[in-house]
């Protein structure tokens, strides 16, 4: 109306942006692209970089921290404003067998959590993970203590037996768990073994433990941050935990999880089940109400 200038800044990720890039290349809009580097963070006419609200200068050290806390395949887009993600390879490049696989026991007061991913049993698709989490510091410290992974087709009763055995060998009673989260109902095959759900597993566990489950198995929810994009959110949380020294520990007995962290490429394949089971165990922390305020500066920039 006033022949003014309309500006928009964006991170072109998780949605198709070919139409916008085509429009820019055709001259319909003007694309001003600036990489995340120190010289681009110093305002024109000034000699010092911009600062965060807490006074932290947005200098090379800050840039290195932002890049380090970003999933590698997202760096071109999230950090440098490019149009395309890097070709996907190994998703958790920050995971190290040397640094993260350890028998070091949890320290301090911990929350005990259990995550369960339902599947038919084939391709190791029924999994459960027991983890301990400390919440006193600025970011959680995680110890993945043990895993149950199905070898083949299993019944809900067999899953319940294996989960109770896993807890027993770690000296954990069900009532000592703080949070238990399970997958949504799985209906992959129309057979006696073809349906898995938290309700069916609850009944099987109650029959073996001799009483009502407390805490109950809560189904991972949809909703804000938990629908489309929840896998990415959980992946970023795990990555940001891994890059913090001493914050991510996996017991050597969790062989399937270790292999999955080394091999998963974000595809819906046999290596995803273990990642999902761990995400479900950590659901209360991934989607904590204050997670956005506790997130590293990459979110402020991106």
Question: Can I get a quick summary?
Answer:
With 302 residues, this protein is of the alpha/beta class.
General description of the model:
- The protein is an alpha/beta fold.
- It has twelve helices and six strands.
- It has helices at residues 18-25, 60-68, 75-79, 97-100, 156-169, 198-209, 230-242, 255-263, 272-281, 283-286, 291-294, 298-301, and strands at 111-117, 127-134, 141-149, 179-182, 218-219, 248-250.
- The protein has a six-stranded mixed sheet with strand order 5-4-1-2-3-6.
- Helix 8 (255-263) packs across helix 9.
- The model is unreliable at 293-302 (pLDDT under 50).
Broad structural category = alpha/beta
Terminus-to-terminus distance:
31 Å
Outline the low-pLDDT stretches.
Answer: 293-302
With strands numbered from the N-terminus, the spatial order across the biggest sheet is 5-4-1-2-3-6
Write down the overall mean pLDDT.
86
The percent of residues in helical segments reads 25-40%
**Large-scale geometry:** elongated
Strand content: 5-15%
Mind telling me the C-alpha Rg?
22 Å
Give the number of DSSP strands.
6
Number of helical runs?
Answer: 12
Helix and strand succession?
HHHHEEEHEHEHEHHHHH
Q: How is the main sheet built?
A: 6 strands, mixed
Blueprint (SSEs and pairs):
Blueprint: H1 18-25, H2 60-68, H3 75-79, H4 97-100, E1 111-117, E2 127-134, E3 141-149, H5 156-169, E4 179-182, H6 198-209, E5 218-219, H7 230-242, E6 248-250, H8 255-263, H9 272-281, H10 283-286, H11 291-294, H12 298-301
Parallel strand pairs: 1-4, 3-6, 4-5
Antiparallel strand pairs: 1-2, 2-3
Helix pairs in contact: 5-6, 8-9
């Amino acid at each position: 109306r006033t022949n003014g200038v309309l500006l928009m800044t964006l991170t072109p990720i998780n949605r198709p942006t070919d139409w916008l890039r085509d429009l820019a290349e055709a001259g319909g809009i003007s694309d001003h692209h600036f990489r995340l580097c120190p010289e681009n963070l110093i305002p024109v006419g000034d000699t010092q970089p911009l600062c965060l609200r807490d006074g932290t200068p947005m200098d090379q050290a800050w840039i290195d921290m932002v890049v380090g806390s970003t999933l590698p395949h997202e760096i071109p887009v999230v950090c440098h404003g490019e149009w395309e993600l890097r070709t996907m390879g190994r998703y958790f490049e920050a995971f190290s067998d040397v640094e993260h696989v350890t028998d070091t026991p949890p320290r301090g007061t911990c929350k005990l959590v259990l995550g369960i991913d339902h599947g038919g049993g084939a391709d190791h698709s029924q999994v459960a993970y027991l983890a301990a989490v400390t919440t006193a510091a600025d970011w959680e410290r995680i110890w993945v203590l043990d895993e149950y992974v199905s070898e083949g087709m299993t019944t809900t009763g067999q899953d319940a037996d294996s989960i109770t055995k896993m807890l027993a060998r770690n000296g954990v009673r069900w009532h000592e768990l703080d949070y238990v989260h399970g997958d949504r109902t799985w209906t992959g095959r129309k057979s006696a073994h073809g349906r898995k759900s938290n309700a069916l597993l609850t009944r099987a566990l109650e029959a073996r433990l001799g009483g009502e489950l407390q805490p109950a198995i809560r189904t991972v929810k949809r909703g804000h941050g938990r629908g489309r994009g929840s896998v990415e959110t959980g992946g970023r949380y795990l990555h940001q935990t891994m890059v913090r020294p001493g914050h991510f520990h996996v017991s050597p007995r969790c062989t399937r999880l270790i292999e999955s962290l080394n091999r998963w490429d974000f595809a819906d394949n046999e290596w995803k089940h273990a990642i999902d089971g761990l995400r479900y165990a950590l659901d209360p922390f991934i989607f904590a109400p204050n997670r956005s305020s506790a997130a590293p500066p990459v979110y402020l920039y991106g």
